[in-house]
């Protein structure tokens, strides 16, 4: 499986964020998008997810499910946690499991992998910011999708939770998944490729 982006140009509000951006990510690879605020990191992810239209270029996933669209094979996690505050953690994940093609049996294991089995029956409004973020991250594993698009996924996470999520990401890569993540902070993914956005022609290379 391979994610291929070719000659991507994105404009917003009359401003060109980037132009002629091309990259690939193979099964088992992570691609980390870096750059200053306003360089277009979030917009790139939203374009890959199909929420924004690129002015030029295209994106495709080769070797995935032949009858499914790119979006149907993608998990997108943005800045917002996308949780209902009145519902419990388990109820929120149950909703997303149904929406994304998972099942109710996947909810408890997903919470456990993020260190949250004890909050399953707590309303989300009673959780801390870090716990809410972990519930949102658990959405990635209640339904199997090969491509993960993650925008600042470790926001509000403490060191321990960051380590837990790094393990989740590594497990996804080990099973042949692909991750594209925009971040200002290290994600604990050794050997990840990098794309640096600067609001001008970009470079793609290996992360240090």
- What's the total helix number? 5
Mind telling me the CATH class? Alpha Beta
Please estimate the helix content. 25-40%
CATH superfamily: P-loop containing nucleotide triphosphate hydrolases
Tell how many strands the DSSP assignment holds: 9
CATH architecture assignment name: 3-Layer(aba) Sandwich
CATH fold label:
Rossmann fold
Helix/sheet category: alpha/beta
H/E series, N to C? Answer: EEEHEEHHHEHEEE
Radius of gyration: 17 Å
**Terminal Cα separation, in Å?**
25 Å
In terms of DSSP E residues, the strand content is 25-35%
Question: How is the topology of this model organized?
Answer:
Layout: E1 2-12, E2 15-26, E3 30-34, H1 41-49, E4 56-62, E5 74-77, H2 89-100, H3 107-113, H4 129-138, E6 147-151, H5 159-174, E7 178-182, E8 193-196, E9 203-206
Parallel strand pairs: 3-7, 3-8, 5-6, 6-7
Antiparallel strand pairs: 1-2, 1-4, 8-9
Describe the protein's architecture and organization.
- Helix content is 26%, strand content 27%.
- The chain is of the alpha/beta class.
- The strands form two sheets. Strands 5-6-7-3-8-9 form a six-stranded mixed β-sheet, sandwiched between helices. A three-stranded antiparallel β-sheet has the order 2-1-4, with helices on one face.
- The two termini are 25 Å apart.
- The model is unreliable at 200-208 (pLDDT under 50).
- The protein contains five helices and nine strands, in the order E-E-E-H-E-E-H-H-H-E-H-E-E-E.
- The longest helix has 16 residues, at 159-174.
- A hairpin with a 6-residue loop joins strand 8 and strand 9 (203-206).
- It is globular.
- It has one domain: P-loop containing nucleotide triphosphate hydrolases (Rossmann fold).
- The protein has helices at residues 41-49, 89-100, 107-113, 129-138, 159-174, and strands spanning 2-12, 15-26, 30-34, 56-62, 74-77, 147-151, 178-182, 193-196, 203-206.
């Amino acid at each position: 499986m391979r994610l291929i982006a070719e000659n991507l140009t994105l404009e917003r509000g009359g401003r060109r964020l980037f132009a002629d951006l091309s990259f690939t990510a193979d099964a088992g690879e992570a691609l980390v998008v870096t750059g200053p605020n306003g360089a277009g990191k979030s917009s790139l992810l939203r374009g890959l997810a199909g929420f924004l239209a690129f002015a030029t270029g295209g994106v495709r996933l080769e070797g995935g499910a032949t009858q499914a669209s790119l979006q149907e094979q993608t998990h997108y996690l943005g800045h917002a946690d996308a949780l209902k505050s009145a519902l419990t953690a388990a109820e929120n994940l149950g909703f997303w499991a149904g929406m994304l093609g998972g099942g109710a049996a996947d909810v408890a294991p997903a919470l456990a992998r993020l260190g949250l089995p004890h909050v399953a029956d707590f309303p989300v409004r009673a959780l801390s910011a870090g716990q809410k973020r972990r519930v949102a991250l658990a959405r990635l594993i209640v339904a199997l999708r090969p491509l993960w698009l993650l925008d600042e996924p470790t926001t509000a996470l403490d060191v321990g939770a960051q380590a837990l999520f790094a393990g989740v990401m590594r497990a996804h890569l080990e099973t042949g998944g692909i991750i594209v993540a925009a971040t200002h902070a290290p994600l604990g993914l050794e050997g990840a490729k990098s794309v640096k956005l600067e609001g001008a022609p970009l470079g793609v290379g290996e992360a240090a």
